[in-house]
Write a structure and sequence with these properties.
The structure is a single chain. By secondary structure, the protein is an alpha/beta fold. It folds into 3 domains: 3-136, no CATH class; 176-260, SRP54, nucleotide-binding domain (Four Helix Bundle (Hemerythrin (Met), subunit A), Up-down Bundle); 263-463, Rossmann fold, CATH 3.40.50. Helices cover 55% and strands 8% of the residues. It contains 22 helices and 8 strands. Strands 3-2-4-1-5-6-7-8 form an 8-stranded mixed beta sheet, with helices on both faces. Strand 2 (304-308), helix 17 and strand 3 form a beta-alpha-beta unit. The longest helix is centred in the first third of the chain and has 29 residues, at 141-169. The chain starts with a helix and ends in a 9-residue tail after the last helix.
């Protein structure tokens, strides 16, 4: 009888042929392993969705699987003898290759459904899909991750805050010309409004009258306005008359008037100290200007001493002392109501003894119409002159640019009393009367040392005729290569 005929006669299940008294021997473990693969592959792969209809009866399914799990093992054990006998018979009758062919035939003849009962196998895949959804949808780790993301978001702006707070803390510093142009903006608007002339090769009489009126309204004065109008009439306009060409021509003519008087306030090293007397009416900005000059010269490496000769106003003394602390300069002050000339003389002597390079004497504000106050100013000049005939070496009047044509009368009165040597014009950013600087230059010809456009220490700078002319005409700075 052949091996194939032997398995055909064995139609009964493997359970009847298992001899419980004779368990399978250990060397035959390879056959059951192959049979286990035969059992699992047909049922686990094609029927993963079989347990879904029985989802309503999950509890009994679990009990069956728990009870019949050993049945699966016994069935496997019962299934083992069949290939054992096959191998024994095959080993006795045929060589080993015939055994492998017999095993393949057994797979076809004896399907897994007959050898193993479905209830024992079906519950096995159930525990495998059931833990998978539990592992895939863990509700606990997700909330743990979510609080971490807001923490990262909240931490990022904290890191950016210092960088963001540093950018607005230091705004871009304006150039001096930008400050000057902004300060003269109102005056420039008045003037440029009269320059809106187009389509003409030259200016006629009516145009010149309009321009002259606009210049007078900007406090350039009658003499300066007439001179400028005449110069504009003489100029050639190759591309015709328009606002741009008129603005350029006006800036050039204003600069021609201001250039002879644009002289910075310089310190003569032969005078030790170089004495500067600050005069002017009340509220013109003498004390603030004295402090700004001290700051600039201190930064230039000069030793500066200041005299608080304004003995009428206690606030002026305190203000000058504050500037002295800022600039590291010595401030000589007397008691309130004391003789201003005596304070100035004492400061001069101390500056000489300490080897100061500059002595700034701040005097009290006084109206040009008050004769007794003007006489006191003349006394200060005489007392200081006892030490040096040339002292004070500079007698500078500080003018408030907002007073307009009234500045002309102030210069006239102080020039007669104190013998002025120069001018500083402040507060040009406060009104539309910046053209008074042109009027002062045209009228007196005194040097204009500096102009101020604000209260900051950097808001006072040396006077430049070209820059002033272009700012007054509403133009940008001229490139100077």
């Amino acid at each position: 009888m052949g091996l194939f005929d032997f398995f055909k006669k064995k139609k009964k299940p493997a359970e009847d042929q298992i001899d419980p008294a004779n368990p399978p021997s250990a060397p035959l473990d390879d056959a059951p392993t192959d049979m286990a693969e035969i059992e699992v592959t047909p049922e686990s792969s094609p029927q993963p969705k079989a347990p879904k209809p029985k989802s309503s009866k999950k509890k009994p399914a679990k009990k069956v699987s728990a009870k019949k799990s050993p049945a699966k093992k016994t069935a496997a054990e019962k299934a083992k003898p069949q290939p054992v006998e096959a191998e024994e018979t095959a080993a006795s009758k045929e060589p080993e290759p015939a055994v492998e062919e017999a095993v393949e035939e057994v797979k076809e003849v004896a399907p897994p459904e007959e050898q193993f009962s479905p209830p024992a196998i079906q519950p096995d895949p159930q525990p495998e899909p059931s833990p998978e959804p539990k592992a895939e949808s863990p509700a606990e780790p997700e909330p743990e991750v979510q609080p971490e993301t807001p923490v990262e978001v909240s931490a990022s702006p904290v890191e950016e805050d210092p960088a963001a707070s540093e950018e607005p803390a230091k705004p871009a510093k304006k150039s001096w010309f930008s400050k000057l142009k902004d300060g003269l903006g109102k005056s420039a608007n008045k003037i440029t409004a009269s320059l809106s002339i187009f389509g003409k090769p030259k200016l006629d009489a009516s145009d010149l009258e309009d321009i002259e009126d606009a210049l007078i309204m900007a406090d350039l004065g009658v003499a300066a306005a007439t001179r400028l109008a005449e110069e504009l009439k003489k100029r050639d306009y190759p591309n015709g008359v328009d606002q741009d060409s008129l603005s350029e021509a006006l800036a050039d003519e204003v600069a021609s008037i201001l250039t002879p008087v644009a002289k910075p306030l310089t310190i003569n090293p032969q005078h030790k100290p170089h004495v500067i007397l600050m005069v002017g009416v009340n509220g013109s900005g003498k004390t603030t200007t004295a402090g700004k000059l001290a700051e600039q010269w201190h930064l230039a490496g000069l030793k500066v001493t200041m005299a608080a000769a304004d003995t009428f106003r206690a606030a002026a003394v305190e203000q000058l002392k504050i500037w002295g602390e800022r600039t590291g300069t010595t401030v000589i002050a007397g008691e309130q109501g004391s003789d201003a000339a005596a304070v100035a003389y004492q400061a001069y002597e101390q500056a000489i003894n300490e080897g100061a390079d500059v002595l700034i004497v701040d005097t009290a504000g006084r109206l040009q119409a008050k004769t007794e106050l003007m006489d006191e100013l003349a006394k200060i000049c005489r007392v200081i002159g006892k030490k040096d005939d040339a002292a004070p070496h500079d007698r500078v009047i500080v003018l408030d640019g907002t007073v307009g044509q009234n500045a002309l009368s102030q210069v006239s009165a102080f020039k007669e009393t104190a013998g002025l040597t120069g001018m500083i014009v402040t507060k040009l950013d406060g009104s539309a009367r910046g053209g008074v600087v042109v009027a002062l230059a045209q009228e007196f010809g005194l040097p204009i040392h500096a102009v101020g456009v604000g209260e900051g220490k950097d808001d006072l700078d040396a006077f430049d005729a070209v820059d002033f002319g272009r700012a007054l005409a509403g133009l940008d700075a001229q490139s100077r290569g």
